[in-house]
Amino acid sequence: MKKLSLWVLAFATTWVQAQKKPNVIIIISDDHAYQTISAYGSKLMQTPNIDRIANEGVRFDKAYVTNSICGPSRAVILTGKYSHKNGFKDNENSVFDGSQNSFIKELTKNGYNTAWIGKWHLESIPQGFTYYNILQGQGWYYNSEFITEKEGRHVKNGYVTNVIEDDAEQWLDQRDKSKPFCLVIGHKNTHRVWIPDFQDMGEFDDRTFPVPETFYDDYKNRQAAKIQEMSIDKDMMMGYDLKMWKSKAEEDKDGSVRRMTPEQRQKFDAYYEPIRKEFFAKNPTDKELAEWKYQRYMKDYLATARSLDRNIGRTLDYLDQHDLAKNTIVIYLSDQGFYMGEHGWFDKRFMYEESFRTPMVMRYPGVVKPKTVSDAFVMNLDIGPTVLDAAGIDIPKDMQGKSILPMLSKKDKRKNLFYHYYEKGEHNVSPHFGIRTKRYKLIRFYDKVNAWELYDLKNDKHEINNLYGQEKYQKITKQLKADLEKLILEYDDQDALRIFKKEI
Ligand code: SGN
Ligand code: CA
């Protein structure tokens, strides 16, 4: 009898757990390069908390974005649709139409508590959430402005990553606990202009980082790469980006510095002043200056990544301490990848791997086996459908992404990926679209530059050898163009179709 009742109890518990909808936390960072994450084998720094998600779940080695830039990536995540369908094509002119459907609206409708806290950058107020507390625009590293329904625009003092995490935990504390939740935490780190939290300043000062193999790329046969304005050497600014202002008066004018409290300013100066003195005394030029800039960039960038990783750790600790870890899916991804000096660059936008790919790890206890490594082609487009699938909610037919969950095991995985970048302004990257298969990448640049590029990724992992037009590659080019046209039609990208059909 005793045995039987124990068995009934065990069965009932399992049944109740199976009925319980999973909670979801999606952490989206800004411009965080997989090249700097130790879970991805980086030797540049340790990211123990991102690594923890990967170790306890799955690391996606072939995760990509549909359009490598901030606002568009977030709009794709929300809607499960490409930019030409959700309307948010670029950061410069787009305003997100919040009246359209999103995976969040589907969750809220189905009894979830939903929140977006942190960087949003969609130029309109979030719709369909139980709660939001978003950064105004890009936000600031110190004393940033936030927007909530109750308080409107207001400043919250402190370092932005910590402030966002504090609010996320407060929301979790105060949420309606009878409902499952989906919380999106949007971090500003590791976005330009890379100002670290005080506790992380100087963490990498004793390191000299290896200069990437392609740092001195000559962009031969690659016109779009040649005309960009995202070079560390030429475009990264000494004051604005690297804090090497020539005078106090110049420093006073800087937007990030001006908002600091006197105490913060004092700590900021205590760290950067000696670096400035040494720099101006040495006064490096040419190649020496380019490499000095690269080293400084790396030090500041990685220091902002430390704060990001530490605050991800706080989220994981919160789940442990509140007995939520078992029933909560945790997904970490960046809005896109980033250049850490490859091709001589910072920033993103291109369909080349460093910016097309994004880091993505997911922990889903009981469903995803710890230490899984997946090479399935997955996209930011898939986040919404994946969450809805896990929550047992029908994926709306017009969402273009797919649930990642079956991709973890089934054989008929995505064979290729479609990409389309539109922005024409800052950093001067020509609009382009293209296809990536396991081995090849075919890109069609248009607008600023009219050209095709073809890469054999197996033999040319740095994508410096444009094979387009070579006799030997005619056959594969023809095949890739046919496959690209199929993708354009499948995703119904009329702009791309028009350009694709034009001869050049
Ligand atoms: C800002 C930055 C750019 C960056 C874009 C897009 N300039 O405009 O360097 O590429 O954001 O970044 S800044 O002078 O304002 O720092 S994104 O992450 O929002 O897409
Ligand atoms: Ca970004």
- Report how far the terminal alpha carbons are from each other: 81 Å
Count of β-strands: 16
Number of domains: 2
Query: CATH fold name of the largest domain, please?
Result: Alkaline Phosphatase, subunit A
Q: Class of the largest domain in CATH? A: Alpha Beta
- Outline, from the CA principal axes? globular
Main sheet summary = 10 strands, mixed
Low-confidence stretches: 11-15
Word description of this protein:
The protein has 504 residues and is an alpha/beta fold. It folds into two domains: 22-195 and 306-414, Alkaline Phosphatase, subunit A (3-Layer(aba) Sandwich), CATH 3.40.720.10; 421-501, 2-Layer Sandwich (Arylsulfatase, C-terminal domain), CATH 3.30.1120.10. The chain contains 15 helices and 16 strands. The strands form three sheets. The chain has a ten-stranded mixed sheet, with helices on both faces. It is globular and about 60 Å long. The model is unreliable at 11-15 (pLDDT under 50). 2-deoxy-6-O-sulfo-2-(sulfoamino)-alpha-D-glucopyranose (SGN) is lined by residues 30-31, 69-70, 91, 121, 138, 191-193, 347, 426-427.
